[in-house]
Design goal:
Layout lengths: L1 H6 L9 H8 L15 H23 L20 H4 L6 H10 L2 E5 L5 E5 L2 H10 L4 H11 L8 H11 L5 H4 L3 H18 L7 E4 H18 L14 H13 L18 H10 L3 H25 L12 H11 L8 H32 L1 H14 L8 H9 L2 H13 L5 E5 L4 E10 L5 E7 L4 E5 H5 L2 H4 L17 H6 L3 E3 L2 E6 L7 H18 E5 L4 E4 L5 E4 L8 E6 L1
């Protein structure tokens, strides 16, 4: 959680990114001894915080709510309500239970008795995503880790950044990366065939690990304009890749702190908070500081290099930082991003890509390995396409790839059935009356067709339930069947009108906080599937695979630490 602690939230604290960062960001060196002294003002703040928590708990327990007639499960914790069930990494059965027992809208209890609406009703999901922002703890958590990037900002600042970045993630710009993506995927294939000897005999590889490495190499090239991973051996991984891959495991034990994030700025001085991060015997917190150090340092050094060269004269520079610096010079002063905002985008894009794309690809590999008929059908389409990877124009190659119908269907079906993001969080910023797609039954037995929500009401949008609703998708909703996206979808799908940016599904969210890079992710996933299936047959091993319901669903092997997806690869 380094950035807020090191910098605060204002651009004035980062007038010179390079010098400020080097002088104030977390270091492994021990802090001065006077930081260890807890001043009386800090004790007073702790007392005030404890009193505030008690007040909020009593108020939430005894206030009358417009949601009183909405049914929901009994809290399992006096202080944490239903949160241990909602955020249980083994909790895949909980969303099913809620849908079967309470329907598409259920009332739950959050921290200190706060009410939370757990929703998969498509009308409510649409209204919430298009109008309500994430709660402060979500936005400010991103701000703490990655600074003033897209995920860590709101309001006019977010709109300004989005306006500046949108052209960089439009198909017109992304098409230019197509040949690069195929080249890097081919490099990875060569390493598999020659470096690991799969040309001679099959071998089991951790495909989550390699998907993550390729993802981060593509991000470094397209965001920084530099290669950080040769992809030529198991041991050639760059410290940058190691650091980014450590981010999610380090963040998970810290998730308990997310609820306190909006109040951290009042918790003593910045120096005191920085001392806590270094000194508390909490390895995950210490690791997170070091992770952000590597990522931010990489972004800063790249920024400093690009500031000192004339990037305007080089039209071939298409990476995000170069194009952003060019665009930044051309806009009026009030629309310009400051240095800290530019640097922060790099960490934001890196974290966002690594959290989602390797895990989404892992699901696709898993589904294809356990459904060999689907795998063979997709391979037949790919081999028949026979792209000219050496001589094709990147725009032409992009269009050809996107035009493969079964490849597209496999992606859509995997992202529907096994979305890497199983839930989204939002908070009402106004009082609202929201109609339901289908009625639910209230506590008093009456039929409820609309819900009244007060400003400040928290929502958890159950993406997994919306994607597995048989009334939307049909009775075969739990079956992995890519053909559904080639055939005509049921009328109920159109009627439901889910607001997702990815073909009315929600793996990349929807509304003004939707993932800006979803077309980029789509290109990478299609390139990787095309490349792998052109060269290898994929099979599952006998390992006991577990999917963890983290913030992003991750694969692991029972009893083995770390993300693991063992896939047996056989050369064709």
């Amino acid at each position: 959680m380094p950035h807020l602690i090191a910098y605060g939230n204002t651009a004035s604290n980062v007038r010179c990114v390079n010098t400020t960062y080097k002088s104030t960001i977390f270091r492994a060196a021990s802090a001065p001894s006077h930081f260890a002294l807890i001043m009386p003002s800090d004790i007073l703040l702790l007392s005030v915080a404890a009193a505030a928590i008690a007040f909020v708990y009593i108020r939430n327990r005894h206030s009358r709510s417009p949601l009183a007639n909405i049914r929901g499960p009994t809290p399992v914790s006096r202080w944490k309500g239903n949160l241990p069930q909602i955020f249980n990494i083994e909790g895949w059965d909980f969303p099913k239970y809620i849908f079967n027992e309470y329907g598409r809208v259920a009332k739950m209890t959050g921290l200190l008795g706060n009410e939370v609406l757990y929703v998969s009703d498509p009308r409510v999901v649409r209204r919430v995503l298009l109008n309500f922002p994430p709660p402060p703890m979500v936005t400010q958590s991103h701000n703490l880790i990655n600074g003033d990037g897209l995920l860590g900002t709101m309001g006019d600042q977010h709109k300004k950044q989005r306006k500046m970045l949108n052209p960089l993630f439009a198909p017109k710009h992304i098409k230019g990366f197509t040949n690069l993506f195929f080249d890097r995927a081919a490099k990875m294939n060569k390493t598999f065939l020659e470096g690991f000897g799969i040309q001679e005999k099959p071998r089991v590889l951790n495909m989550h690990y390699w998907s993550s490495r390729l993802t981060l190499e593509l991000v470094s090239q397209t965001s920084f304009g530099r290669s950080l991973d040769p992809l030529d051996s198991e041991d050639s991984v760059h410290p940058y890749t190691v650091a980014v891959r450590s981010m999610l495991p380090a963040a998970l034990p810290l998730s308990v702190l997310r609820i306190t994030v909006p109040y951290l700025q009042y918790f003593g001085t910045k120096k005191f908070r920085r001392w806590l991060v270094h000194s508390l015997p909490w390895p995950a917190l210490n690791t997170m500081g070091k992770v952000v150090d590597v990522i931010f340092n990489t972004a800063v050094s790249t920024y400093e290099d690009k500031k000192n060269i004339n990037i305007d004269e080089d039209e071939d520079r298409k990476d995000v930082m170069s194009v952003l610096l060019k665009a930044n010079k051309k806009v009026v002063a009030e629309d310009r991003l400051n240095e800290y905002e530019v640097v922060s985008q790099m960490g934001t894009l890196t974290a966002a890509a690594n959290d989602t794309t390797p895990n989404a690809l892992s699901r696709m590999y898993w589904q294809l390995a356990r459904n060999p008929k689907v795998q063979e059908k997709l391979r037949t389409e790919i081999l028949a396409a026979d792209f000219d990877l050496e001589n094709s124009d990147p725009g032409q190659l992009y269009d050809q790839l996107m035009a493969l119908p079964y490849l597209d269907a496999v992606l859509r079906e995997t992202m529907r059935l096994d979305s890497p993001v199983s839930m989204l969080q939002r908070r009402a910023n106004v009082d609202a009356t929201i109609p339901l797609w289908r009625p639910i039954v209230g506590v008093d037995g009456s039929e409820i067709n609309t819900i009244n929500v007060s400003k400040g009401t928290d929502f958890i949008l159950a993406v997994c339930n919306a994607h597995r609703d048989p009334e939307i998708w049909g009775n075969d909703v739990l079956e992995f069947r890519p053909e559904r996206f080639i055939e005509a979808l049921p009328e109920s799908f159109t009627d439901a009108g889910l607001p997702g940016v990815y073909f009315q599904t929600l793996p990349f969210g929807g509304g003004f906080k939707a993932c800006i890079g979803y077309k980029y992710a789509e290109l990478q996933m299609k390139v990787m599937l095309y490349s792998l299936l052109s060269s290898f047959r994929m099979e599952l091993t006998d390992d006991e695979l577990v999917w963890n319901m983290h913030m992003v669903a991750t694969p692991s092997i029972a009893g083995v630490k770390g993300s693991q997806l063992p896939i047996k690869l056989t050369a064709l």
